[in-house]
Amino acid sequence: MYQYSEQDHQLLLERVAQFRGQVERRLKGDLSEEEFKHQRLRNGLYLQLHAYMLRVAIPYGLLSSDQMRTLAHIARKYDKGYGHFSTRQNIQYNWPKLEDVPDILDDLAKVEMHAIQTSGNCIRNTTSDPLAGVARDEVEDPRPYCELIRQWSTFHPEFNFLPRKFKIAVSGAIHDRAAVAVHDIGLRLIKNDGGETGFEVLVGGGLGRTPMIGKTIRSFLPKQDMLTYLEAILRVYNQLGRRDNLYKARIKILVHETGEEKFRELVEAEWEKIKTSGLFIRDEDFAWIKGFFKDPEYENLLDQDGNYENLLLSNLDFARWADKNIELHKQSGYRIVYLSLKTAHQPPGDVTADQMDAIADLADKYSLGQIRTTHRQNLVLSDVKLKDLPALWEELAALDLATPNYNHVTDIISCPGLDYCALATARSIPISQAITARFDDYDYVNDLGDVSINISGCINACGHHHVANIGILGVNKKGTEVYQLTLGGSAREDAAIGKIIGPAFEADEIVDAIDKVLSVYLENREDPEETFLTTYRRVGQPLFKERLYG
Amino acid sequence: MALQVYTASLLKEGLVAYLTLENGNPSWTPDIRLATAGTDSELEALKLAAEQSELENHVVAPYAIDVLETEAGYIASTKREQIRASGPTIRLPQDAVRASRKAA
Amino acid sequence: MDSYIKDRKAEGDEWMPFTGLEESSSLPTGDIYVPLEEWLKSRESLLERNGRLGVALSNTDDPALIKDDLDRLDLVVLEFPKMADGRAFSQARLLRERYGFKGEIRATGDVLYDQLFYMQRCGINGFELRNDQDVSNSLKAFDEMTVTYQPASDEEFPIWRRED
Ligand code: HEM
Ligand code: SF4
User: Fold this and answer.
1) Which chain C residues contact residue A43 at CB under 8 A?
2) Nearest chain C Cα distance for residue A37, angstroms
3) How many structural domains does chain B have?
4) What pLDDT band is residue B102 in, cutting at 50, 70 and 90?
């Protein structure tokens, strides 16, 4: 992974010192809350329902074991012993004190981490494919590009006070595991007919109250032009994005109101003027940045192992886990392992400090010392030898991190909702727990196959409910929490916004409603291979509506 | 007019607090049951005291909420404020893990 | 204006704003700046004056409108109506980098300590601080950070392309 230079370290130290100054000025009263808010938000510090909340950046979801240990240490020392991994691959702490935040940032800086631009109207942490560099369906490793974007966007002096927040995602594979179509900018690595690498550039995706799928404004952008093109898009947005209405300030609205064609012209015209500027990426720049993401020295291994295969036959739990939570690796004899953060008793994405430490140890022992965070709020060990799987599984099971449910019905994305969030209109974690409790049966989960449920506690859609096969949005109706269902969304390469199916359900009805939706699917699928989404797209809403409201 | 109390977040800790006013002296408590409640004109005094605390950088963003008087003391009347007053309604992960270990 | 910084030093401000409502006969002598609209309207007569001239852009004006006049101007005034409104950062870079303006680019409005670093990187070198800002303290803001990653008006290349 990327190794900090002296200057990178220097920048973090200066940033911490600066924030320490800002906190001191605030505590002394020299900064008003209004002014400080802009500063703390640029450092990922929110004031939430119960306490401050600190969001720490995990650049494109990549963590070393030492970084994970530091996250554990922070959870233990400054918080209540846990952290929350978010759909944007970051981690959030729910209980830090303002006075402690500079010290937390100091501890983070020691392991090359920070909270820079994790909130506020600036370019946020770039997200990517958690299987970057190891996936079999990869066109090219997106991480070097992500790192260039990270550096370009960090404290960008022109784009630090944008109309609204700005999120960029990069995917390098055939299958989209980074939800690029619902980001302000989504970059898809592709090859053109000449075999050159470049990007399909999507702009104007986003969720919130006006969900939109990104529009392709350029079908092939040579990779050398990535940063100049991003700069052109951001410059157009900074100048023309709406600032009169918070809800219309995202770039998706600009693209929508300007029209795709006109927007493209504006960007291309700006780009013409800067495409040969200092941001043009030369071959030697690529060579330098790619050097940080070289393949590790994999051993030459057979893609089979007697022990592993025996255990598959003799241990049902192991076989289930292997079936659900393991993915093929590009390297023979290796596997990618998902650590499920979805159990019936822990909120989705939450991990305790003890678990974090243990995961760090497992990464050292079995997976070259690295961990990735995923958009679906799970973790990944990306380079595990086939022959180590039995031992790893045993340890994961003891840590309660081996629920066999990856991409299945109980692998629920959930935002913090009204249990933590000041903006929430309803709770989301208890709903996710109730659903998990109801369907917590392996055979049923297995039979349902690939299906996604996402829950948001308000229209801001941090839980990505619009792009779930089954989305749940909590709203407040005359003082009670009710839940609206959307069906048919997808966050993958076939991205789609789900449609609201009808009137909302009470909290004690929603699990039954989900149950009905799932049974309609089971009864109508053509064969067990047909996924929920395919069936839904084939049969449409009426059958579901009838069962739910008929 | 409904009975109200003033609430805010403590600047340093970020934690939820409620205003009590005794003989004109303001202080902030985490316990909503100990808050000073008022209507109309009493509320005006609470408002001034809350704003003063904000000016003195003791609390952030004070506002009034409706409360109900029960035998156990005041409780907030909306779900949001009830959760703010008593914390997340779910088991925090540390405790949840402990409980699941015990059960296993 | 006493809270004014020019080229990283506290300075007295010699410029007079001219709104366009005054009679041109009653214009003060010395250095004046006018809103873009007035500049476009009275350019010729303004150019006959002896003092230096400046133009004030609102943050929705396209700086290209004055690009051909820049060698006759000594000041361009940009506005930051509130801290969160960062449109003028782009205007500043365009003036400096694309149109090669050499005179003073001045930030006015909600000009606060924590933006000075970014403003300077975008080519702004004059700062009318908001009244409550402390000038000598604000001077520290320019050096709080020494590492920069991306090109801007002060650097042609990103950090990975610089010789060090
Ligand atoms: C707890 C404090 C949080 C606050 C105050 C907050 C606030 C918001 C707001 C206001 C929006 C809507 C923005 C818009 O429409 O322009 C939003 C969107 C979003 N947030 Fe959060 N959020 C929080 C937590 C989270 C968490 C925990 C996650 C990840 C699980 C998250 C990920 C996202 C995502 C993915 C979106 C949708 C992206 C989009 O709008 O295009 N946020 N958030
Ligand atoms: S969706 Fe709403 S409730 Fe959930 S975290 Fe985002 S802002 Fe909070």
Assistant:
1) none
2) 11
3) 1
4) low
ipTM of the complex: 0.96
Q: What is the mean pLDDT of chain A?
A: 96
Cβ pair B90:A424 closer than 8 A: no
Global pTM value: 0.95
Q: Are A412 and A453 in contact (CB under 8 A)?
A: yes
Per-residue tokens: A33: 């809350």
Ligand 2 atom index nearest CA of A418:
3
DSSP A33-87: HHHHHHHHHTTTEEE-SSSEEEEE--GGGEEEHHHHHHHHHHHHHHSSSEEEE-T
How does residue C1 score in pLDDT terms, banded at 50, 70 and 90?
Answer: very low
Listed in sequence order, the residues at least 6 apart from A154 whose beta carbon sits closer than 8 Å to its beta carbon are A11, A116, A117, C149, C150
From the list B13, B61, B88, which residue is nearest A419 (CB)? B88
pLDDT reading at A404 higher than 90: yes
> How many Cα atoms sit within 13 Å of A332 on the Cβ side?
6
pLDDT for B1 equals 67
- Ligand 2 contacts CB of residue A454 (under 6 A): no
**CB of A382 sitting under 6 A from ligand 1:** no
Domains along chain A?
A: 6-110 (3.90.480.20), 134-292 (3.30.413.10), 306-398 (3.90.480.20), 413-549 (3.30.413.10)
